[in-house]
Design goal:
The complex is a heterodimer of chains A (154) and B (385).
Chain A (H helix, E strand, L loop, with lengths): L1 H4 L20 H14 L2 E5 L6 E2 L15 E5 L2 E10 L14 E8 L6 E5 L12 E6 L10 E6 L1
Antiparallel strand pairs in A: 1-2, 1-3, 4-5, 4-7, 5-6, 7-8
Chain B lengths: L4 E8 L11 H16 L8 E5 L10 H4 L1 H4 L6 E3 L6 H14 L5 E9 L5 H6 L14 H16 L3 H14 L14 H6 L2 E3 L2 E2 L8 E10 L3 H4 L4 E9 L14 H14 L4 H4 L2 E3 L7 H8 L8 H6 L16 H4 L3 H17 L12 E8 L3 E8 L5
The chains are: A mainly beta (154), B alpha/beta (385).
Bound molecules: zinc ion.
């Protein structure tokens, strides 16, 4: 494109926008996170019509659009549905996680949807789809998804 | 009141990694002027405008208003649509709805992006749920990698199969003067490029581009007066399948399967592999070129690698895919889906020059978003029934 400048120096203006947000989790997610923080228990909601258990818990079933009124306990153990190994320190990876970061979809026993989390205490080359894993809870829990520190092989 | 709709002109910029020689409005203007010239229309002939780009990418909130110097939208009806990666395809579907409704005769559709102006990763991260997915995120590429990993496990495919798709698209880009990356690569070079997230190598994925694309749609009342051989829109579809990343069926693209079934049904297509002549697939990474054509029903589950190795999707093959070089060669995201649409139009009109596929009756173009949502358009050289 430099041929298009025709002797004009293209000026570039650098800037940064700092936009703080507060995301309200809502009743349903709050209940999940409080139970996770205080009782180290993973819970989900169930659709009475579809008989499907959602994790993350949802207030309304996305299939039949009725309210999920029932809460159920979900196991701390589950199966790796798929995974990848992030080899570059992408900006989206939390700063306390250093590559290679193993990141996977884990379907916990009793849930019909997978949850997203990290795998650890295993070498990347040993992870397989279908392997059984178990939640390791954080010592200090603050009511976020990182109250589960990671999942490790059973 | 419903009208049949045709595309009567297209225009796009020469896409580059950086365009410091133009600001956003001027970039948009290049594509708009080319589309107007292609259709032999003037700005005063345009009844309404649809424009779109990615949220957060340029940090401009009111793009519909801000862009009027470039878009020609001063004192005209103009709306902005933005749907993430599918934006370019969504603006086309929005334009189709406006013209099809009978309320506007000639609509200008614009997709644009100056990817070079922002932190793409930061902007894309906002597409994921802040309470559930973002705190345990590993980047957009990791989502794609998880899809590829599941497909490989389910069907016994390999990294070489993905690399073959990248080799194809990068070779096709050599025929497209508008493509950003025009360099052939070998299978070995793809496999030897750095691993980003297993099994995706650097040369398996798209670049970041600055670029814009514009398309003009007209109603059946005037389309053939503007353009002797317009590109008729036969059908469009749009599907969303998830709220949280764990909802998706990894290894299959459910939104593509459901949406393409709707297209085939609307157009009476029974065997897409035989009845389509060319595909411009929004395929930001190589493995999508395997998985998603199976979801379209071009071949059966697990059959894409062999079909592609046999050369069927290369130029001159049974069903060429991405004659333009596709997204792997050029990716100004908000424009990317509309470039697919414009390239499909050029194929139907016979204007694709060095990348022309002979005798195109039906062409398919698509958009793909963030993770696992899909928009699509079926183009044809005959007026739909
Ligand atoms: Zn239900």
């Amino acid at each position: 494109m430099s041929d298009q400048f025709q002797g004009i120096e293209p000026m570039v203006y650098k800037s940064k926008i700092n936009v703080p947000y507060s995301w309200w989790a809502g009743d349903t997610a709050s209940k999940f996170y409080i139970t996770l923080r205080d009782e180290k228990k993973i819970t989900g909601t169930k659709c009475a019509a579809c008989n499907k258990v959602f994790l993350p818990p949802r207030k309304v079933c996305p299939s039949c659009f009725t309210e999920n009124k029932e809460w159920v306990n979900i196991s701390n153990e589950g199966t790796v549905i798929t995974f990848t190994v992030a080899r570059c320190q992408f900006a989206a990876i939390p700063s306390d996680k250093k590559v290679p970061v193993i990141w996977g979809m884990i379907k916990l026993d009793g849930a019909d949807t997978a949850m997203l989390h990290y795998l650890d205490e295993i070498k990347p080359e040993n992870v397989t789809i279908g392997m059984r894993v178990k939640a390791v809870f954080s010592e200090e829990r603050k009511g976020t998804i990182r109250d589960i520190s990671y999942f490790k092989p059973v | 009141m419903a009208k049949r709709v045709a595309i009567v002109g297209t225009g796009q910029t020469f896409h580059k990694s950086h365009r410091p020689d133009v600001n956003g409005q001027e970039l948009i203007n290049e594509a708009v002027l080319r589309a107007l010239a292609d259709a032999d229309l003037k700005m005063k002939d345009i009844d309404a405008i649809v424009i779109g780009n990615m949220d957060h990418f340029e940090g401009i909130n009111y793009v519909d208003c801000w862009s009027v110097d470039g878009s020609g939208g001063t004192m005209k009806p103009i709306i902005k649509l933005t749907t993430g990666g599918t934006t370019g395809c969504t603006v086309a579907i929005g334009g189709y709805h406006l013209v099809g409704s009978g309320m506007f005769d000639k609509v200008l559709i614009i997709g644009w992006e100056k990817n070079s102006e922002s932190d793409t990763t930061g902007a894309i991260t906002t597409a994921f749920d802040p309470v559930w997915d973002r705190l345990v995120f590993a980047g957009a590429i990791s989502g794609l990698a998880a899809e590829a990993q599941a497909y490989i496990a389910r069907y016994g495919a390999s990294e070489r199969d993905g690399a073959r798709v990248s080799v194809r698209d990068r070779k096709h880009a050599m025929n497209n003067p508008h493509a950003q990356l025009r360099k052939e690569v070998s299978l070995e070079e793809v496999l030897a490029s750095p691993m980003l997230a297993d099994p995706i190598h650097l040369l398996d994925v798209c670049p970041r581009s600055d670029g814009a694309c514009a398309v003009i749609m007209a109603s059946e009342d005037i389309a053939e007066k503007i353009c002797p051989k317009p590109d008729w829109i036969w059908a469009t579809a749009s599907r969303h399948s998830y709220s949280y990343l764990g909802d998706a069926d990894y290894g299959r693209l459910t939104s593509m399967r459901e949406g393409s079934q709707e297209l085939w049904k609307k157009a009476g297509i029974r065997e897409p592999r035989k009845e389509l002549d060319v595909i411009e697939l929004y395929q930001p990474y190589s493995f999508g070129g395997l998985i998603w054509i199976e979801d379209m029903g071009i071949v059966g589950p697990g059959e894409a690698p062999q079909y592609i190795w046999d050369g069927n999707t290369d130029m001159g093959g049974e069903l060429p895919i991405n004659p333009s070089g596709g997204v792997i060669a050029t990716n100004p995201i908000g424009a990317t889906g509309l470039i697919r649409c414009a390239e499909a139009t050029m194929q139907v009109m016979g204007k694709a020059q060095g990348r022309q596929v002979p005798d195109v009756n039906f062409a398919f173009s698509s958009g793909f978003g963030g993770c696992w949502w899909t928009d699509m358009i079926l183009h044809g050289n005959k007026k739909p029934n």
